[in-house]
Structures are given as structure tokens and as C-alpha cells.
Amino acid sequence: MQSDAEPERPYALAETIAPKVRRVLARNPSPFTYTGTQTYLVGDGAEVAVIDPGPAQEEHITAILDALGEARLTAILCTHTHRDHSPAAAPLSARTGAPIIGCAPLTLEDDGPRADAAFDADYRPSRVLADGESISGEGWTLTAVATPGHTSNHLCFALEETGALFTGDHVMGWSTSVVSPPDGDMSDYLASLARLYERTQDTIYFPAHGPAITKPHQLVRGMLGHRRSRERQILRQIEAGNTTIPAMVPAMYKGVDERLWPAAGRSVLAHLIDLERRDLVLRCGDAWRLPEGIA
């Protein structure tokens, strides 16, 4: 919740935040979305692309249309299909004729801890971008960078002319990404982080939630270290006798808003599955143990 001391958030207002980039903030703040979903408009000429059109809120869709002005919307891109990212794509396409491009469709039954993260069953792209494939308009080129992990269909988009990378939920400055099985995969997530760390051409990240990241490689290095630290924490918890996820989470996430503990438990599960693949833990029903010789 926004406190009285915080400035009013610029909902339904297009702000220029970088060359060729404007941002419109959706009014869907939550413990999982921070101040809300940030929709990006790319291009300052006659052709514009929209990245992560966000929730299907009339106020938000109208703000995006108003921001276009006389420009033509030529592409609606989605990083992934959680409901805080892609539902506005269909009505925006219907009103403008712009094609929906980007990630592959993905619909799963979601028994996870956050209702807003369920998949958008109505997402229907007219074109799916493969890793390394680009689309372009007047003065801009956007290239897909496959980054599975948060979801299996997650893409980032690189703005080739400026060195900006739109990172969706893969990398955020305000919080780590939730990795929730069965679709969320920690092995893939770590590999995707490592891939971004190797991309020296990216000089700034624009995530779907939270502030721009001006030292991206430093942050990604820290995120990789954080995930390895979580692994060691989990192994210590099992060694100490906390062998179930409900026992691990309170000990591992002290000081974290308890509303986030269910989501944290999903990421702990993703870590455990990754550790199991590497033969570092064994599953025993709802409990986990260390193999002989690991302790």
C-alpha cells in the first residue's frame, strides 16, 4: 500500500524515461507487482511497438492509445503470459489492428499462491518470436532473447539501437523473481541469468515491475550469488532437521512479509527440484533429505 509520504504514482500517464522509450504504469499494485505493471512504448517516430500491454483495464488501455498520438502501433509484444502482462494485448490489437507478437502461448492450471500470476488463457499471438529473431519499425529494432525460468515461454527484448533490454519478470531490481513449478524451472532460470550476464551489449534493463536497472551486470552477478546462497541455506535447513518446505520458509525468510511466504515456498520447491536433479537431495514424500555422504 502506498503511504502518505510517497509521491503519487503516475498511473495512466505516458512518461519518457529514455531515448525511444516511454512507460505507462498500470493501476495493479500488489506485493507481487510492486507499484504495478509497466507497459513500454518503443519508438519516437511514425511506428511504435508496445511491450507488455498489461492487465485489461480500460484506464490503462486508454492511456496507451492516448500515448500513441498520431503514431501507428505496429507490434504488441509480450514477455510472457501471466495475467498482469498480456491480457490487454487482445483489446489493444482489436482497436488498432496491430499484431500480437512475442512469446508462445502457454496455459496451465495454476495452484500457486498468487491469483494475478495465473496464465492468460485468451492470449493468441499472430507471430511467435524465436530466440534471436527481430522485428523493426521506424528507428527501432527489437530482438527476442529467450529467458525461460520464471515461465517456460519467457522472452526479454533487446532494443538494438540503445543497449536497453526489457526484462519482463526475469530480472527486477525491487525483488527476485518467483520461480514456481511445474512450469517455473530453477535450472532454466539460472541458465538464463548466466546468459544475460554474458551479454555485454546490454547497458540498462527496463523490468515490468520496479525501477530501471542501471548496473545490470552487477545486479545479475549478485542474483546468481543469491540463488547459490539459497541453495546452501536449503541444504543447511535439511541438515538441521527442517525437512519440509513449510518448516524451511519461516527460517529462511525472516523479516519478509508473510504474505509472500507461499510464493517463497514455490521458489524453495524449484530449488529443491534443481538440487534433486543434481543428486544433492532426495525426496521422501513431502520431506527432503541429504544423500549419504553429503552432510
From TrEMBL:
CDD domains in alphabetical order: metallo-hydrolase-like_MBL-fold (cd16278)
SUPFAM superfamilies to which the protein is assigned, alphabetical: Metallo-hydrolase/oxidoreductase
Highest taxon in the source lineage: Bacteria
Ranges for domain Metallo-beta-lactamase: 36-209
InterPro entries tied to this protein: LACTB2_WH (IPR041516), Metallo-B-lactamas (IPR001279), RibonucZ/Hydroxyglut_hydro (IPR036866), Sec-metab_biosynth-thioest (IPR050662), WH-like_DNA-bd_sf (IPR036388)
Protein name: MBL fold metallo-hydrolase
Organism: Novosphingobium decolorationis
